[in-house]
Amino acid sequence: MTSHAAALLSAPRAALTPGTLDTPAPADDEVLVRVRAVAVNPVDWVVQGTSRITYRWLRTPAVLGSDVAGEVVAVGAAVTRFRVGQRVLGLATGTDRGRDPLREGAFQEYTTLLERLTAPTPDSLSDEEAAVFPLGLSTAACALFQSPHLGLRMPGDPAPGTARGVVVIWGGSTSVGMNAIQLARAAGYDVVTTASARNAATVRDLGADAVVDHRSPSAVAELVAAVGGRPVVGAVALGAGSTDACIDVLTRTGGDRLAMASTPVALDALVCRRRLFPAMLPVFARIGLGTLRSTLHARRRGIRANFVWGSSLRDDEMGPRLWGEVVPRLLAEGSLRPMPAPLVVGDSLDAVQGALDRQRAGVSAQKIVVRL
Ligand SMILES: NC(=O)c1ccc[n+]([C@@H]2O[C@H](COP(=O)([O-])OP(=O)(O)OC[C@H]3O[C@@H](n4cnc5c(N)ncnc54)[C@H](OP(=O)(O)O)[C@@H]3O)[C@@H](O)[C@H]2O)c1
């Protein structure tokens, strides 16, 4: 058996350290990938800093990371869409309950990806660009297309001859938001969104027809005005304060579906505390109470609000359809662009911990990427 290098989480809350793992053979429905670029998401430093509470099932040592681009070096017996040598991008789900956090984590030289969560990388994209998609795109798709959320038609589904419908996306300059704008437009919906002034032109260029600054005290009224009486098919809430703001917009525009992707309290301050206990108690109490209060608030206004889990498409029909049909087609057409733009912060696994810290410090329409 051969071995390879990995950035290991050796214990909950530890810094990532270099390690060596046995290189696995792919299972029947997997491809083994030589990883060439990884991107970082907020969940990576959240899991690193709080997994004793938030990801209690996660055993260590573990390999974190969701976003993978690289090349296929082996295919499982049942794989039909990929061959050895092909460049791919895909969603690694090793930190999810019931998955293998060593075989299926992104931050290592070789990882396994499920065929159904993998797409070919077109020649027009570098690996660094391809790595920005997986979790942002998957979370956006869950929010827009899964039936507990907005339940919208997917790109390629026939559109009815009636009015197109508007999707409200609070947080259009986030990674999830930029993918949501593009997917909603590709499915034939109009989009109104938020972004700071410096990112307004970028999100407009992705297809939003109105952009409002999420820091503006009149942001809700401005979004309602931007909807302009068109039918609202739902809202996606991304970022602090987004859930209550979306409930207000939906109430005033007649929309009745809300996909919530962010916790009501950010966890970045907690993650860097030397001890989780007792600092976690008021934070998690506020998250629990805030979520309950918002859900009840939504229900009283006739709005169905559910929390999105970006990797849940692994277990439904939407995932294989997204990764097997929609993503390859949109990438080949050039109608799905790698946004936020990659910001490459290193060239080796040693750079991954710094990349997590950089993401936690805050980004603005940038995806932190490490090349391997
Ligand atoms: N539930 C899931 O499965 C799942 C999966 C992925 C992400 N998420 C969550 O979704 C959110 C977005 O994640 P991401 O990786 O896409 O984020 P990201 O790219 O790190 O987000 C950075 C952007 O957030 C925007 N922003 C900051 N505060 C905001 C606010 N109050 N309202 C709206 N936008 C705000 C900033 O916009 P400007 O610079 O333009 O101000 C910045 O460009 C996070 O809360 C993350 O934890 C959830």
Radius of gyration: 20 Å
How much helicity do the residues have?
A: 25-40%
**H/E order of the elements?**
EEEHEEEEHHEHEHEHEHEHHEHEHE
SS strand fraction = 15-25%
What would CATH call the class of the largest domain?
Answer: Alpha Beta
Largest sheet: 7 strands, mixed
Find the CATH superfamily of the largest domain. Answer: NAD(P)-binding Rossmann-like Domain
Spell out which ligands are present. Answer: NADP nicotinamide-adenine-dinucleotide phosphate
Low-confidence parts: none
Domain count: the total is: 2
Do you know the CATH topology of the largest domain? Rossmann fold
User: Mean pLDDT, rounded to whole units?
Assistant: 95
What is the correct CATH architecture of the largest domain? 3-Layer(aba) Sandwich
User: What is the structural class?
Assistant: alpha/beta
Strands, count: 15
SS summary, helix count = 11
Instruction: Report how far the terminal alpha carbons are from each other.
Output: 22 Å
Shape: globular
Protein name: Zinc-binding alcohol dehydrogenase family protein
Organism: Microbacterium algihabitans
Domain Enoyl reductase (ER): 7-370
InterPro entries: ADH-like_C (IPR013149), ADH-like_N (IPR013154), ER (IPR020843), GroES-like_sf (IPR011032), NAD(P)-bd_dom_sf (IPR036291), Trans-enoyl_RdTase-like (IPR047122)
Describe the structure.
- The protein has 372 residues and is an alpha/beta fold.
- It has 2 domains: 3-133 and 338-371, Alpha-Beta Complex (Quinone Oxidoreductase, Chain A, domain 1); 137-307, Rossmann fold.
- 33% of the residues lie in helices and 22% in strands.
- Helix 5 (197-206) links the parallel strand 9 and strand 10 (210-212).
- Helix 3 crosses helix 4 (175-186) and helix 6 packs parallel to helix 7.
- The two termini are 22 Å apart.
- The mean pLDDT is 95.
- The site of NADP nicotinamide-adenine-dinucleotide phosphate has 31 residues, from helix 1, helix 3 and helix 4.
